[in-house]
Amino acid sequence: MTLHRISNWNLYRMKRGALRRRAKDISLVFVVLVCATLVLWSWDTTPSSAFLPPDSHFLKLEPGEPNEILQLSNWNLYRMKRGALRRRAKDISLVFVVLVCATLVLWSWDTTPSSAFLPPDSHFLKLEPEEKVERIPTTLNTETKDSYSSATPFVNKDQSKEDQTDNKDKKEEEEEEKEEKQVAKVTDSETNQGKTSTIEEEQAEREVTVSEPKYQKTLTSKENKLEQVKEEVAAGEVEAKTTHIKNTNSDPEKKTLATDGERTEQHIAKKDDDSSSTARITNQGRESFLYIFGVMMGENILGVFIISLACNYAKGKWVVDKHRPLYSGSRCKQWLASMWACRLMQRTDFAFERLRWQPKDCSMEEFEGSKFLKRMQDKTLAFVGDSLGRQQFQSMMCMITGGKERLDVLDVGPEFGFITPQGGGRPNGWAYRFPETNTTVLYHWSSTLCDIEPLNISDPLTEHAMHLDRPPAFLRQYLHKINVLIMNTGHHWNRGKLNGNRWVMHLNGAPNTNKKLAALGNAKNFTIHSTVSWVSSQLPNHPGLKAFYRSLSPRHFVGGEWNTGGSCNNTTPMSIGKEVLQEESSDYSAGHAVKGTGVKLLDITALSHIRDEGHISRFSISASKGVQDCLHWCLPGVPDTWNEILFAMI
């Protein structure tokens, strides 16, 4: 892609230079014309009047000479002088005609003397749009430059308090397994209680104004030439096939995916100026705007200037889409943990499932499992991070399969070291392979995104070294097998987690003695920078690798933490806002970490912040009294949008 951009830029510079030299050719012709005209007007002896005698040779009337002879001689000389002036005017007219013709030839000639060496337009390489990541600050920005070095690892101000409870990961695992066993006892009739009635759906749709972009794609006759150039530059990318979900049943959960050929969209937005045009090109989720400016004379194109602008998917708004959700939360049991399937809980309002993210000034291709698998053929996509990364992984599996059971999908966890430990505990990851395209999707648990190793393997109660300057051992061992990597961390950087898991921060292979890194916010930021920099340094060794760092998923606890009465009772979509227009990421440390590296930012913080109604909240089946989950999301839900943006950026 980079080679294509460089080649096209060089060709563009050659074209621009040729246009400038062509203008110089024409200017030179005009200069010669003006100079020749001035010379002809100021030259007393033009080619047609050189034979004339000078004025001093005219006869003078002397006293006593016959007047008739003198008058006759002067009259003949006057006629000769007048004829010479007429011939001089013809000379000048001839020069004008020749130069005007030469000018017209230069303007209409495709290969002027100064541009004959240029390749034809058909030889231009395909333009690959460049994904541009814009960093975005706003009133929601809770991690600024001033607070960058503080110990605050979370988004909300009330989240700056460190969790002092000793809540171990093992205890969380036991609770999750307990939830799964309890949900397994729920009958199908109980699951139907969570379905939204028709009245509730209509009411939810009235709560939010549907805003769909409209595009014009009819070009004027004068733009046909420019359209041909666009087709050559795009090389087949102008026609974008976009699949939509067909509603084949009154039940909003029963949907099938349309085929590639059923829906084709080509968005062309044109300007009023006939000499310029703007093309919106969507191809396999990669979208950019090609601003094409053409210099025309009559029906001939003298030059084309192309400017490509990438889409910023972090800016936009939430809109209601009756085709959502992309899969059924009650039927995706093969991939979706029951503790995150809100359709299996006591929740009865599901308006949050019908929202779709609409980026500003551009659109995203509809996600379809078959397209994703084709795009990722013979490739591996890996999520590495905490439980929010696991949610994104399970969301992706449900989106690929449409929430349907797939017995042909292979469990290839052992290939990546994912083995269930003795005693029935969970493995440290999952990996599944779709045999039709040899596509592998996996998740590896790494809550702090750094290497953690026990200090004494033989002691089950030993402390663990938390190496802030080392990437996870999984990445060092299996990075060569990964084609798309998505990393995240954040919510485990608190004293409760560190003390409960007996994690001790290490630096350079020894216990940390740096006082600045003793603050957990600084330690977290240091680790993110360290791991992102290491992955970026490995990109030249793995040309097929695309790496992303996903920004922080916001929490919405109000009135306390998860264990001190914090709640998130709102169930109305977009009650705190629906649009994001900021220019810098709300997760400052994430945006700062990827700056200047080959790792791209998957910025989801701001767009997730205005979706506080999408959390599991108080609806968990096994939730203790007074305990709410305002960190994890209901699925289907907000993490599906993270994957849609990822699909567009791959």
From TrEMBL:
Residues 138-153 have a biased composition (Polar residues). Keywords: Membrane, Signal-anchor, Transmembrane, Transmembrane helix. The chain crosses the membrane at residues 23-43, 92-109, 289-310. Its main location: membrane. It is a single-pass membrane protein. Residues 135-279 are annotated as: Disordered. Belongs to the PC-esterase family. TBL subfamily. This is Trichome birefringence-like N-terminal domain-containing protein. It comes from the Eukaryota. It is found in: Membrane. Residues 310-363 form the Trichome birefringence-like N-terminal domain. The keyword Glycoprotein does not apply. It comes from Brassica cretica (Mustard). Residues 366-649 form the Trichome birefringence-like C-terminal domain. Residues 158-171, 220-242, 251-274 have a biased composition (Basic and acidic residues). Pfam families: PC-Esterase (PF13839), PMR5N (PF14416).
